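Troubleshooting: if your tokenizer reports a length mismatch, compare your output against this known-good record of 409 residues.
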Amino acid sequence: MFNQKKKEIIAMLLAGGQGSRLGVLTERIAKPAVPFGGKYRIIDFPLSNCVNSNIDTIGVLTQYQPLELNAYIGSGQPWDLDRIYGGAFILPPYMDSEGGQWYKGTANAIYQNMNFIDQYDPDYVLILSGDHVYKMNYADMLEYHKEKQADCTISVLQVPWEEASRFGVMNADQEMRIYEFEEKPADPKSNLASMGVYIFNWKKLKEYLIKDEADKKSDNDFGKNLIPAMLQAGERMYAYVYGGYWKDVGTIESLWQSNMDTIDPTVPLELDDPPWRIYSRSANKPPQYIGEHAELSDSGIADGCWIDGKIENSIIFSGVTVEEGATVSNSILMPRVTIRANSRIDYAIVAENSEIGEDSCIGWADEGLIMGQDGQITVVGPDLTLGNRVKVARGAIVSTELKDEEVVK
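Known-good structure output:
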């Protein structure tokens, strides 16, 4: 085996999820590759967290629609991960002399890449999800793991009691040692929700991965199988309480809300904080152009935009055009979207490369609709052309092109 420099800890980033609840936004790309916050993608958060935590070796496990995600990560240069010893490595499912298969579950994905981990002979392995928005110092979590002499440490977030039943819940004693794990319990005993961030002692994890793979009845999943097995065997497992911003952007509403949080000064999600900057592979675009008719308020506008309309409380990605008389409110316009003259976009997400014709209304709603209910964010899929004077109701999903004056309710 190729002799790499030994690492104390390496990260394995699970980035192969389909993100089916995001609908048309993830039909062609994996959820971690979804654009976020005007110039980022969701995967920028765990990658940046690793680099800021001095973790320089990351295996990125891809599976569903990996092309754009693989191209985006590339050599890892934007995150300072183009290294001789370590760096970012794309790890798709592969064939060997005995055959091959897709990743069957989160634990199986790590099992299939044990050789990759072994070449660095790490003491610890950090397991991450590629579809959460948060800023976290994994080095602090590692120190906690060492202090507790843990076999496994699971990062948890205190959620409101009324929401605890939506999560995997960790029940722990006063020393924060976990004695029980409940998957979406109807009557939770704790409000410590798992964040899907784990640190394992590698030798211990390897032992359980091999056992789990040999169990033909297993779903090969960390939450369903491997962690309960470790608890049942009495391994030392501890909860690490995280107190910062964290959002699972697995739904249209949560993706929209988390984007809006980036321009809300009351939300602790500063993306350009010098000690903990979120890095990205940015588009090489000229400065934005703001025309004489433009009105801007409480919005983020990326480079390469041509704005001559009204923008309020919105996220505008690079290369977007908003013509004179158009109004964009409470919305997300992804890269290279065009909004023609006198159109109105409200509470909507318009995906990459789509065009909205003149005098159209995207996100119209009856009086009395209150934000916070499900199905209120209108979505226009990628690479679509909508004609002039089109009307699309609040909460509708557009996945096909629309002709002039079509109405979608």
